[in-house]
Amino acid sequence: MNAHLQPTGSAYFLTQETQQSERHTLSVLVDNEPGILARVVGLFSARGYNIESLTVSETEHDKRLSRITVVVIATPKTLVQIKLQLERLVPVHKVHDLTAEGAYLERELALIKVNGTGDQRAETLRLADAFRAQIVDATVESFVFEVTGKPSKIDSFITLMQPLGLIEVVRTGLAAISRGPEGM
Amino acid sequence: MAEKMTGAEMVIQALTDQGVEHIFGYPGGAALPIYDAMFQQDFVQHILVRHEQGATHMAEGYARSTGKPGVVLVTSGPGATNAVTGLTDALMDSIPMVCITAQVPTTLIGSDAFQECDTVGITRSCTKYNYLVKRVEDLPRVMHEAFLIATTGRPGPVVVDIPKDVQFALGEYYKPDLDTLRHQSYHPQMDGDAAAIEAAVDLMLKAERPIFYTGGGVINAGPQASEHLRELAELTGFPVTSTLMGLGAFPASNPQWMGMLGMHGTYEANLAMHDCDVMINIGARFDDRITGRIDAFSPNSRKIHVDIDPSSINKVVRVDVPIIGDCERVLAEMVRVWRSKTNQPRTEAIAPWWAQIEKWRAVNSLGYKNSDTTIKPQYAIERLYEATKKQGKEVFITTEVGQHQMWAAQHFHFDKPNRWMTSGGLGTMGYGLPAAVGVQVAHPDALVIDIAGEASVQMTMQEISTAVQYRLPIKIFILNNERMGMVRQWQDLLHGSRYAHSYSESLPDFVKLAEAYGGKGIRCENPAELDAAIAEMLDYDGPVLFDVIVEKDENCLPMIPSGKPHNEIILPDTANIGDIIDEKGRQLV
């Protein structure tokens, strides 16, 4: 219905940027208080930013601080705004754009349930071994694997499990941290 | 050992400690303990409103005219939801406000109790910050923290939601040390970066076509900021324009003043913005009503942007020299640095620029064709302005939203900050009347006038009753064209003059209405009688509803249509505005 809408350069078409979107991982240090996640998520939806992945957990219990790892896809201009808008929230201490700031590690954990009987069972186990997947539950006709690693590794493992009888997957979302001695 | 008191008493004690003399509110079941505590003391005076939205706009008017935070007290459920418009308005216009909402007891939260709503959920996106206080031990800290957050940095509204059982609970009251407040993450940056200020002044020293573009941030930074702006303008000799929110920071009577800029700004201000080589934005945020078409906005200028909110920098327009800090401090530094480099204004270097500005000014873009038979709205405001100058009182103007608001901004002139209260960002019809009540509460001896339209004023009309109750002699100056004038104008511009629902088929008799409320009503439709009628309004010691019957189809010009750059501004002598905007422009707001 709105297909005829053309960008005109007015402020109302600012979102139609010509810059290329990039995938960035942000680490956000916040007070662990009721509603903090709603504040962060509400900011993203109110301002039209897209969340690819979001992980949150308390990391420093005595200071009641939580670390939110959020993966966004946005243009460089919007990425700057996302960081500044997050910093504007009262309970937000720090925001680091790990992707922009240098080397960092990304890890994710997945639990993967696979059907396995007969010959397929052996093949499933061989592949799981190659991916260093742990067996955390087993029955005569199924396994649950625990896989940790980069999201791409988990993606590959899931792809391999599909023809072998993949039942279901749960993933934690991303945890990320910068390399080197400096903390956030 | 601190004194034991109830949560409700703590609320009143905290307000007292914060020096809050007036609060605007409306009682209800969940708020009764706080009302009871208030009843038993004299320091905090309560103004009983007629609708919670009115309370929030009163608090905004109070805050805007004093520089102090406005305080609101409402009950749970509908009390809180009715406050949402005013909270959003305060957030958009950066007005310091603390809104205390009562909540159902903690044991009932989440049970869909009577008059329960998820207040913190609903207000999360329309406040600077909000709290649900579940433990009485937290209440004193939260109350003081709320004032700190509302009034510092970029000001804004803060909601404190207090369940009824917490209001009854006994606890120890304390005044928290501001340094140890829990939110160690909240540190607004006040001082501008020295190197950035130096770079800005260096740019200004080389400017040949400079312009100061100032905004509400200068007003929010306090009266000293306006003083520094005046000093800097005098030192540099540069022309000054301002957004709607910034009017009064620089005196309209000063020859360097170019009038307001933006969609309904003057020809000279907008053309100067378009053609300048150095733009000094102080406390404004490149709102779409200012910039018009972004890719054609001031294409050849270097831009300096002073803002206390880092997220305002490069949000809309890319700038060359960003300075994050409080306008008052940054302006003071700019004055000092400029003085350290020269003691001459750039009079000679910018003389051709001023000559160009004078040519634009000669276009007289605020001109209009006056009439002997009908009152032109612009004329009504000019006569009101002239009459108020002779009053020997401080004059405060509030407005509703629409054509009358723009005409007031164009034709009423301000020489001081904090004298002009209007809903800029959110554009809330119904803002002006309650805002005038709030201003008058803060300034009982001043002349407070709400310049209104007959459509807007009906949105919060009932607050006349509040004005009558508290003997607040506000004047409501209605420019009555029996139209939602700005909507009608846009229908002319964009929709082939098909006036869908932009006229009022059954207006109340405003004179009788005023009398029904216990105020005075005056009607005027003859230009020859206008001055006498305005004098009658100003002489009356009490609230007046002044119904000025004005020209029905007057357009508010000049105007930069959406999607057009500043130099394609429509001037008053344009015959048919319906032909100006193309298909693309029609899509814009």
Describe the protein in words.
The complex is a heterodimer of chains A (184) and B (589). Helix content of chain A is 30%, strand content 39%. Chain A is built from five helices and nine strands, in the order βαββαβαβαββαββ. In chain A, the strands form two sheets. In chain A, strands 5, 6, 7, 8 and 9 form a five-stranded antiparallel beta sheet that branches. In chain A, strands 2-3-1-4 form a four-stranded antiparallel beta sheet. The radius of gyration of chain A is 21 Å and the shape is elongated. In chain A, 25% of the residues are buried. Chain B is of the alpha/beta class and 589 residues long. A six-stranded parallel beta sheet of chain B has the order 3-2-4-5-7-6, sandwiched between helices. Chain B has a six-stranded parallel beta sheet with strand order 11-10-9-12-13-14, sandwiched between helices. In chain B, helix 1 packs across helix 2, helix 9 (194-206) packs across helix 14 (327-341) and helix 16 crosses helix 17 (403-411). The mean pLDDT of chain B is 95. The chains are: A alpha+beta (184), B alpha/beta (589). Chain A binds chain B through residues 5-6, 8-12, 14, 30-31, 34-35, 38-39, 42, 46, 77, 80-81, 84-85, 87-88, 90-94, and chain B through 120-121, 124-125, 128-129, 132, 149, 182-186, 287-288, 291-296, 309-311, 313-316, 562-563, 584-585, 587-589.
Brief sketch in words of this structure:
The complex is a heterodimer of chains A (184) and B (589). Chain A has helices spanning 36-46, 76-88, 98-101, 119-130, 151-165, and strands at 22-31, 51-60, 65-74, 92-97, 104-115, 134-139, 142-149, 166-171, 175-178. With 184 residues, chain A is an alpha+beta fold.
Tags for this model:
heterodimer; A: 184 residues; alpha+beta; Alpha-Beta Plaits; 2 domains; 4-stranded antiparallel β-sheet; 5 helices; 9 strands; disordered N terminus; B: 589 residues; alpha/beta; Rossmann fold; 3 domains; 6-stranded parallel β-sheet; 20 strands
